[in-house]
TrEMBL record:
Pfam family, one: YceI
InterPro entries attached to this UniProt entry: Lipid/polyisoprenoid-bd_YceI, TTHA0802/YceI-like_sf
Signal peptide as annotated in the record: 1-18
Keyword Lipid metabolism: no
Species assigned in the record: Anaeromyxobacter diazotrophicus
Keyword NADP belongs to the record: no
The protein, known as: Polyisoprenoid-binding protein
SUPFAM superfamilies: YceI-like (SSF101874)
Protein keywords: Signal
Length: 199
């Protein structure tokens, strides 16, 4: 019995590691999108095309999971070159001074079947504020080349003014650009393969 207990204790760190799976976002099958009101009558939608993200998911204890992401602000695209240039300028993102926005989770909790609530620090335009992501997950599936994949769909809303993005212009209908920004992430992630020890 003592030998069995000793063996289980020796295996416990490995079992704990095995419970955590690591995932990297695949940008070619993902989208980091946003929408903001224009003239209070319609939504302008855009996306960032260059980003990276990592998820450490502990299925046994979700609270031990972590999420980190970094987005290249200069990769913004709203399908209008003049508008994109304005958004990169000091009036908005000031991409030359603040080239990246980042997110780092501080708390993860289960919010229902295949749902998570991820709280974290979003740093944008030199300002860091807490945000909460509502996340829906999918089961694992095998990809075309034997790799393991799963999906994460996340949404949240932020106030751009709280991050120092205060530029606006008054028009007859009201503010030209809304304050609330709706963020929608459709992410496909690939499970990292464990590193094999060198022989």
């Amino acid at each position: 019995m003592k030998k069995l207990l000793a063996s289980l204790l020796a295996l416990s760190p490995a079992l704990a590691l095995a419970a955590t799976s690591h995932w990297s976002v695949d940008p070619s099958h993902s989208q980091v999108g946003f929408a903001v009101k224009h003239l209070v009558i319609s939504n302008v939608r855009g996306e960032f095309t260059k980003y990276q993200g990592q998820v450490a998911l502990d299925e046994a204890d979700v609270a031990k999971s972590t999420v980190e992401a970094s987005i290249d602000v200069s990769s913004i695209s709203t399908k209008n070159a003049d508008r994109d240039a304005h958004l990169k300028s000091p009036d908005f993102f000031d991409a030359a001074r603040y080239p990246a926005m980042t997110f780092k989770s501080t708390k993860v909790r289960k919010a229902g079947p295949d749902k998570l609530e991820v709280t974290g620090d979003l740093t944008l335009h030199g300002v860091t504020r807490p945000v909460v992501l509502d996340v829906a997950t999918t089961p694992e599936v095998k990809g075309m080349y034997g790799e393991t994949r799963r999906g994460f769909a996340a949404t949240t809303k932020i106030s751009r003014k709280e991050f120092g993005l205060t530029w606006n212009k008054a028009v007859e209908a009201g503010p030209a650009v809304g304050d609330e920004v709706a963020i929608a992430l459709d992410l496909e992630a690939v499970k990292d393969q464990p590193k094999t020890a060198a022989k």
